[in-house]
Design brief:
Structural class: alpha/beta
CATH class: Alpha Beta
Radius of gyration: 15 Å
CATH superfamily: Vaccinia Virus protein VP39
Helix content: 10-25%
Distance between the termini: 35 Å
Order of helices and strands: HEEHEEHEHHEE
């Protein structure tokens, strides 16, 4: 990881306590980089969850596009550096909004490259945890430049914080999930 990436992760870690309330779901928690003790971690990669269990024993194997939790279960959800790997960010965001309480908050950290930039070296265009490239995920992006608009489809209040130390990083804070007819799913997307 480059120095600016390490600095961006440290910046996010410093911000999280001020942005977190209630029961926490860390979606796409991976090895638990942001997983807080007592929080629920979810990832599709079982091997990575074994490492995450060191931070919190409450880890679940699952897909963010079909979360195994009841509606309005969590006060805060984290989705850090994983939405672009889902293949359907809007479906993932709709599911996250569903499991958040009415006063819930989603915190999204991204370091996605600018639109049109090449995929990060070594990924080969593959969705994390997938054996084959997913060309749709390359087009279905949430990044510093479009993140607020993408999140406003699913949340009433969205704001962005950007660190001076990293020109790709953004932290989105989305509150008051929209449900049912109030959610604005783009055409071609559904549950």
């Amino acid at each position: 990881m480059r120095d600016d990436a390490f600095a961006a992760v440290a910046w996010v870690r410093e911000r999280l306590p001020y942005l977190t309330s209630g029961r926490v779901l860390d979606v796409g928690c991976g090895e638990g980089t942001f997983l807080r003790p007592g929080a629920v971690g979810l990832d599709i990669d079982v091997a990575r969850l074994r490492a995450a269990r060191v931070r919190s024993p409450l880890v679940v194997a699952g897909d963010v596009r079909a979360l195994p939790f009841a509606a309005a279960t969590f006060g805060t959800a984290y989705a850090h550096r994983m939405l672009n790997d889902t293949g359907d960010a809007d479906r993932a965001l709709a599911e996250i909004a569903r499991v958040l309480r009415d006063d819930g908050r989603l915190v999204v950290f991204t370091r996605a490259r600018p639109p049109g930039a090449q995929a990060e070296a070594g990924t080969g265009g593959q969705v994390r945890g997938s054996a084959s490239p997913d060309r749709a995920s390359a087009r279905d992006r949430l990044d510093r430049w479009n993140g607020e608009a993408r999140l406003r489809r699913h949340f009433a209040d969205v704001r962005t914080e950007t660190p001076a130390l990293d020109d790709r990083a953004a932290l989105f804070i989305a509150a008051r999930p929209l449900r049912g007819d109030r959610a604005a799913m783009p055409r071609g997307h559904g549950a």
